[in-house]
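Milestone M4 deliverable, item 7.
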Amino acid sequence: MKNTFLVIISILCVLFAGCKNEHRSFKSYVEVAGYAEQEVSPDIFYLNFTLSENNSQKININVLEGKIVNALKLLNIDTQEDLSVTNMYGDNWRWWRRVKNVYQNKSYSLKIGNIDLLNKVCDKLDSIGYNDYYLGKIDYSKSDELKKEIQQQAVKQARAKAENLLAGEGKTIGELISVQEQTAAKNNYPYYNYDDSYANREMAADKAYEPPVNFKKIKMTYNIIVRYSIK
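Output delivered:
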């Protein structure tokens, strides 16, 4: 019984000593949020379109694809590299009815490197009688470099905020304890900015007039939580 009592006392002493040491090693800290954002003009465009075999004219989908590919090659577009098939399907209803001819549909995405080429592609598709296309996504070619830049900006903002908070107490920040990433976002869906002023609506009566249109800039944002020790 006496030995058991001594063992319990020893355990309590060890626990008490550990708590005391932990309390002594505790450092006061300041925790702040950092935020940065930056907007850039898009320089990559993804044009989406779907080819469908024509029921009445009985045009094979390979013929349609060949016309599109040849038109793109005239614009020096590498179709092997920049044109990809995103979906392919048939007329399931006709197949279920045991109809012999099942008409195919193929969806594509074309990567285009600049807005001038995008306009030329649209004009070329229109010239061959195909105008069923839309812009699926826009992007920025140096997104990785931009992300690193705004990450550093967010950390700098957080540091400046921490220094300002502690200055009122006559203290300064110490070593960096932790950095926690909260969110990183990029809006890369196509939005257009139209100038719809009264003057431009009046000018629109002139067939030669083309209203100024540009793409809304891509915004990249970054949020972090930073913790510094206090001196």
